[in-house]
Design a protein that fits this description.
The protein is mostly helical and 334 residues long. The protein is built from 16 helices and two strands. The protein has a two-stranded antiparallel ribbon with strand order 1-2.
């Protein structure tokens, strides 16, 4: 155990809960890194503090972060879904086909969300009914969903969307505050309330911490897992609506590789890959950090491949730092 953790333990028995407890929380460390990156970007680029520039920066992470919220639920329960990028591609392609058939924006949006829901249900059936390990099941559906998307439209680009469809990915609620950012913040609050203040949240933590004990205590473990998979698919469909709207077009290669970026947000946010630990606040801070890092570097015209290297290095560095401080394993459960 590192020297940093000793005063933390000693103060547990006293009546002076010094702020070391808060300072050593994973979320506090992330907040400090976010602040440092924000100040660094401000120093490196004279354009970074412009409100519209900051608004553009939010587009860099909100769609992925919306999927990261239910992904956090799933990983806390001890499962994982790496097919979300392909789910988004399939939903986008079917939205494009519906739009090309002449249907209006409401039907197009509902199509994307419903396709995501059924894709999530398909994964859920594989895991909870046929007992396929979630990582194996979703590796299969990662290829299956993307393959169906290519089979439906080939390499064509679909962009017969009504002009008002653009609001979801390009619209602003007030001034430079985008619809996507407001939607993400509202969803983050809802997910945080569910996870940290409700019976559902406590049962999600219980299932992730010890699924056998949870089952023996009467919890409907498979039912919870089924609906969390379905929820994740639904949020992937919603993110597909936002992404397709922002791009103004559909192609089957859309959101390629996003599943790894979304999982990175969740793990960097302090969600234990073993299940049973984590917080929504950590996921939100991790999404903000990744968005600030990638957007700040893009302002400096850093090539995309370098951005990927830096993002991966950031993940390894922050996790290694927490382990070096003896923080690993002390994250709060809820």
């Amino acid at each position: 155990m590192s020297t940093v953790s000793r005063p933390f333990v000693a103060r547990d028995s006293g009546r002076v809960p010094f702020t070391w407890r808060k300072l050593l929380r994973w979320e506090s460390l992330l907040a400090l890194v976010v602040l440092a990156d924000f100040l660094l970007n401000t120093r490196l680029s004279p354009y970074f503090l412009d409100p519209w520039t900051l608004s553009d920066a939010s587009f860099n992470f909100t769609e992925r972060a919306i999927v990261a919220l239910p992904m956090a639920f799933l990983i806390i329960m001890g499962e994982i879904d790496i097919s979300v990028g392909s789910t988004m591609a399939l939903a986008s392609v079917l939205m494009g086909m519906v739009a090309a058939a002449g249907f209006g924006t409401p039907i197009v949006v509902v199509t994307g969300i419903v396709v995501g829901f059924f894709a999530g249900c398909f994964n859920a059936v594989l895991v909870t009914v046929f007992r396929v390990p979630s990582i194996v099941a979703t590796i299969g559906t990662l290829s299956l969903f993307r393959g169906i998307a290519y089979a439906l439209v080939g390499d064509r680009v679909l962009k017969a969307y009504h002009p008002n469809f653009a609001y979801f990915g390009q619209g602003y609620v007030v001034g430079p505050i985008s619809f996507e950012l407001v939607l993400f913040l509202v969803l983050a609050v809802i997910f945080a309330i569910i996870l940290h203040t409700t019976v559902i949240g406590r049962r999600i933590f219980a299932i992730g911490a010890n699924p056998i004990a949870a089952r023996l205590s009467g919890l409907r473990v498979d039912s919870y897992k089924f609906w969390i998979f379905a929820l994740l698919g639904t949020m992937a469909g919603l993110a597909s609506v936002l992404l397709t709207s922002r791009l103004g077009s559909t192609r089957p290669s859309i959101a390629t590789g996003w599943e790894l970026e979304i999982i990175t947000m969740v793990i960097l946010g302090g969600i234990s890959i073993d299940g049973g630990q984590g917080s929504i606040l950590g996921v939100v801070l991790a999404a903000l950090l990744i968005g600030l890092v990638t957007f700040g570097l893009s302002l400096l015209n850093v090539p995309g491949i370098v951005l990927a290297i830096i993002t991966g290095g950031l993940l390894i560095g922050v996790v290694a730092l927490s382990a070096a401080l003896g923080y690993s394993g002390k994250r709060r459960r809820h």
